[in-house]
Amino acid sequence: MGVFMKLKSLVAAAAFIAAGASAQAAALSFSPVGGGLKADLSGIGDTSFTFTLSSDYLFSSSVAGVQITIPGLFDTGAPISSVSLNGTAFSLASSSTASGPVISTTYTYSLLNYPLSAGSYTLDVKATGAFGGVATLAPVPEPESLALAVAGLGVAGFVARRRKSA
Question: Which part of the chain is the Ice-binding protein C-terminal domain (predicted)?
Answer without folding.
Answer: 139-163
